[in-house]
Amino acid sequence: MLPFIAAFLLAVFMEPPKSLRPKNIMVATELLSDPFLQLPTPNSVRVVWFTEFSGRENCVVYGDNLEEEVRAVTSKLTRVREDQNSKITPSYAKTAAREVWRHEAEITGLKRDRRIPYRVISTRETGEEISSHIFSLAPTPSEGKPLKILLTSDHQLMPMTAANLQKVEEAIGKVDAVFMAGDLINIADRASEWFDSDGGNAFFPVLQGRGSYTLKKKGIETVYKGGELIQHAPLFTAIGNHEVMGRFSLQTGLNEQFGDAYPHIKAEEMYQKSSAEINPRNDPQLKAAWIKANSFNTDTYEEIFTLPQSNSGGEKYYAVTFGDIRLVVLYITNIWRSPSIKDEQISRYRERSQDLDTPEKWGYGQHIFEPITPDSKQYKWLLQELQTPEFQDAKYKIVMFHHPPHTLGDNIVPAYTNPRQSIISTLEGEVKSVRYEYPLNDDYIIRYLEPLFNEAGVQLVYYGHSHLWNRFQNKQGVNFLESSNVGNSYGAFLGNKKRPIPKGYQETYIAEGDPNGLEPIMPTISPLKDENNNDLPYVSSNDISVFSILDTGRGKVSSYYFDTTQHNSDIIKFDEFSLRPKY
User: Fold this and answer.
1) What letter does residue 243 receive in the DSSP assignment?
2) Angle at the Cα of 474 from the Cα atoms of 530 and 378, rounded to 5 degrees
3) What pLDDT is attached to residue 2?
4) pLDDT confidence band for 542 (50 / 70 / 90)
5) 532 and 401 in one domain?
6) Do residues 464 and 550 share a domain?
7) Which pLDDT does position 262 carry in this prediction?
8) Are residues 161 and 238 in the same domain?
9) Residue 518 is part of a domain; what is its CATH number?
10) Does residue 175 register a pLDDT over 90?
11) From its phi and psi, is residue 432 left (phi > 0), alpha (psi between -120 and 50) or beta?
12) What is the pLDDT of residue 250?
């Protein structure tokens, strides 16, 4: 049985005092993050920031003259830790908890389409006041207001992330929102990946223009700081596989815990075998906590963000109206396992020989974290959402999740379905092999969700996961866009380039192209060329980075690339397509 520790700090909103802060307060660097915006409504928005101390007082001052003040609710992140693999100074010799404090204040009484200045102030127990710079905030924009939305994904402290976001600010300026399709970091419980990795490219710094990442290309070093984006624009995120942590431990490294996600149903079976010892009083909260500790969780992700919520899924899946957009965010991701079938690796296709007699060490293939089949809570919620007036009357209907339904990338194989386990045993019951199959015709996204998108008039499905740019359109006119090329690309599998697939399995695994049958669309303006000067229908590069912008005023999605091997590279618009509006 693995140990489980949970600590929750309960806080209540306090009545904010009305006081005027001095305008010349010293700006210090001890805030762990700049403030960022969350959960806008027609007359309010949340301001969130982090420190390494709880503080005597934490507040937001705002208004044309910073004359208004509201106190923040402060809580402590319960699971963030560092370990020997953390890139942080001073280093850690072993896995240890790290104190990180979250502060959130709700700014109310705002007017639509009016932006006002704000700053955050955290006061140490000594009385020292530490302030951010002055930024701007606004509530949810009104219908008809032209917006520019950054579509991004798979940051993961990748080499080109800081450069990518810096180029967004240079080309577009301050965006109105950021839609991020998962894989924000690598290890969700490693605090430094969110806030202060020594590499200078942690999640928050590069989205706030506070990074300092040195990119080395062709012998030239360029330092990128990222873009000052989320201090002014709300961030809406989806859960990727890197936001999910596996079985909890105070002893093992965070990398090992990340890769040790165990199916809920198997953890529950383990619990039932030992429930009398674990939970003699049959406390339902203790049962739920034990199963979570011995399967997987998204606790740190959910503690960091304040997102819209659904009744059945909380922040894991939700829908929100933002200007002319109805955004539906789904929890569609599974554990990533190696495609190798070598015996020393935990594979998506087989169990290791050394683990055959200990099922608690099995990986259970690429098991899905949150069900999306018709009998699931998420699917039933989605059906209801697609029938709401908020969705049906929206000018732009957009769905965002992590796992690709259509791609030339590697991570679409095998199909997105529950692994079919095949156990071969001797007559005496000795397990000789365990294999997993994934029938292509039972891909849950294609079988169950794409028909719903077709019928509901979804114009854009946005996703990531394979670290490239490509797009598709089905016969019903639904656009599919994957824009996640910020470094560490594993390639596009088209023509002579083949995906690694197993031999001798029952299912046929598709080695190249989109396994689900769509042809990639050639960029409409300036496609890249291959070595034979042929146009490429994708961007998959560790030198050229891509970002995409949804412009609701023009009803278009534009994609841009730039070359990090060139100093001050031009930012080139290479593709643009229109969304089919409802009216």
Assistant:
1) G
2) 115
3) 37
4) very high
5) yes
6) yes
7) 97
8) yes
9) 3.60.21.10
10) yes
11) alpha
12) 84
pLDDT tens digits, one per residue of 85-100: 999 999 999 999 999 9
Domain carrying residue 209 = 141-247+300-329+371-406+454-578
Which ranges of 47-198 would DSSP assign to H, the alpha helix? 161-172, 191-195
- HSE at residue 42, side-chain half, CA atoms within 13 A, is 4
What percent of the chain shows pLDDT beyond 70? 95
CA distance 469 to 559: 9
Lowest mean pLDDT among 8-12, 17-21, 271-275, 515-519: 8-12
Over the stretch 376-415, which tens digit does the pLDDT of each residue have? 999 999 999 999 999 999 999 999 999 999 999 999 999 9
284-293 helix and 264-278 helix, angle to the nearest 10 degrees: 130
**Residues 305 and 170 grouped into a single domain:** yes
Bond preceding residue 515 cis, omega within 30 of 0? no
Tell me: do 241 and 306 sit in the same domain.
yes
Contact 520, 495 (CB under 8 A): no
Same domain, 148 and 114: no
One-letter amino acid of 475: K
**Is residue 239 located within the same domain as residue 382?**
yes
Q: Look-up: residue for tokens 């019928």?
A: 455
Q: Which pair of structure tokens corresponds to residue 252?
A: 């093992």
pLDDT digits (tens, 9 = 90+) for 431-490: 999 999 999 999 999 999 999 999 999 999 999 999 999 999 999 999 999 998 887 898
pLDDT of residue 581: 66
Q: Is residue 19 part of a domain?
A: yes
| 550 has pLDDT over 60 | yes
324 is a domain residue: yes
Among residues 140, 170, 202, the one where a domain terminates is: 140
User: pTM score, two decimals?
Assistant: 0.94
* CA-to-CA separations, 63 to 44, 177, 378, in angstroms, rounded: 13, 21, 40
Do 237 and 386 share a structural domain?
yes
C-alpha dihedral, 529 to 530 to 534 to 538, nearest 10°: -70
Cα(473)–Cα(469) distance, integer angstroms: 14
Task: Please give the C-alpha separations between residue 478 and each of 336, 432, 458, 563, 580, in angstroms, as whole numbers.
Answer: 27, 46, 6, 30, 9
Is the N-terminal amide bond of 90 cis, ω within 30° of 0? yes
Report CA dihedral (156, 157, 162, 167) to the nearest 10 degrees.
-20
Decide: 439 and 417 in contact? Cβ < 8 Å: yes
Q: What's the alpha-carbon Rg for the chain, to the nearest Å?
A: 24
Query: Last residue of some domain: 101, 117, 140?
Result: 140
Q: Describe the chain by its helix, strand, coil percentages, rounded to 5.
A: 15, 25, 55
First to last CA, the chain: 57
- Asked if residue 274 belongs to a domain, the reply is no
Measured at the CA of 185, the angle between CA 161 and CA 136, to 5 degrees, comes to 65
User: Taking a C-beta distance cutoff of 8 angstroms, is the pair 432, 491 a contact?
Assistant: no
Interatomic CA distance for residues 434 and 423, integer angstroms: 5
| Residue of 308, 286, 304, 320 lying closest to 245 (CA atoms) | 304
The total of structural domains in the chain comes to: 2
Among the residue ranges 234-238, 485-489, 493-497, 568-572, the one predicted with the least confidence is 485-489
């104190």: which residue's tokens? Answer: 99
| Residue 263 covered by a domain | no
